[in-house]
Model the fold of this input.
Amino acid sequence: MGQSNRYLLLGNGGHARVVKDLIERTNASVLHVFNNDTEYDACCEPDLPLMIAIGNNKVRKSIAEKVKHTMPALVHPSAQLAADVIIGAGTVILANAVIQAGAKIGKHCLINANVVIDHEAEVGDFVNIYPNVYIGGATKIGDLISIDPGTIIARNQKV
Done:
């Protein structure tokens, strides 16, 4: 998770600013920011990891399916993750998130600030969980789902 000290960033909006800050908090840097995937297509830095910093799940999926760079997961230093949590490639976990034992997070997810994902919950691919969400134990969130800020999802649910 986040082993490189230099990254490429695809996206230049508000979420990209947050991801750039996260990268810098891990003592790494962003070498170049691409405004869109057309700009990225002309990229000549294939050895550097790329973070897709776009909040729209479908757009993020479309880009991820054609990108050739490695896309590591990034975890904010203040996030708390149990030792056995599984995190997919390209996923970003932001400040003060808590992910409990046995949880599984898919690839290219956005786990925003102050999110709690309880034990054995499963989050699909290309999911965006907005700030201050609680996801109960053993809940299953499908692919391409967005969970609105402040939502509480009881345990053992399917979304």
